[in-house]
User: Fold this.
Amino acid sequence: MEQKYALDDVLISRGEIEKKTAELAAKVAADTPVSANGKKELIVVGILTGAVFFLTDLVRDLPEEMDVRVDFMSVSSYGNSTKSSGVVRIFHDLKTNIEGKNVLVVEDIVDTGRTFAYLLDLLHSRNPASLRTCVLLDKSARRETEVRVDYCGFNIPDAFVVGYGLDCAGMWRHLRDIRTVREG
Ligand code: IMP
Assistant:
C-alpha cells in the first residue's frame, strides 16, 4: 500500500534560496573562462524536472554579457516513493552538442550520488572543454558513489525534502520554500 506523507517544517526559506542562488551565480560567472571570441560561454544543463526551478533562477542571476545557453536532460532514479530504485533511465537527451564547450550541470539534490555520477560520466564522454556541477542541496552523509560537486547551495541532513522543484510522488514541487515531509 502506498505510504502517505504530509508537509512538515520549512528547512530552507525562499529568502535563503534567493540569496544563495545569487552567490552561486556570481561564483559560476567568475570561474567561467573567456573564450577566443572574448566572451564567457556557458551551456547550462538542467536535469528535469526538479532542477528547472533552481536553474531558471540561477541563470537569471548570471551577468547579461555572458553567452549562456540552456538545455535539459530527463532522467529518473526514483519511483513513487522516497526510496531510491537504484535504476537510472534517460528519457530525454540534450539537443546541444557539448563537445569543446564549457558545461555547467545543474541538479536539485544529490543524495546517494548514483544518478549524478551516471550523468556526469555520460556527459564527460562527449568531450566538453569543461564540466562543472552546481547542486542546490547535498545530502553528503548518504553518498554511496563519489561525485564532483563544484558549487553547492546547502548541505542538508538525511531527511526527505520537497518544494522549489523537489517532489514526493509528483507533489509539492510548486512550493517556494524547501520543506521536510513526515509520514501522516
Ligand atoms: P541519488 O541518485 O540517490 O543521488 O538521487 C538523486 C535524485 O533523487 C534527485 O534528483 C531527486 O530526484 C531524488 N531525491 C533524492 N532525495 C530527495 C529528497 O529529499 N526529495 C525529493 N527528491 C529526492
About this structure: The domain at 14-157 is CATH 3.40.50.2020 (Rossmann fold). The chain has a mean pLDDT of 92.
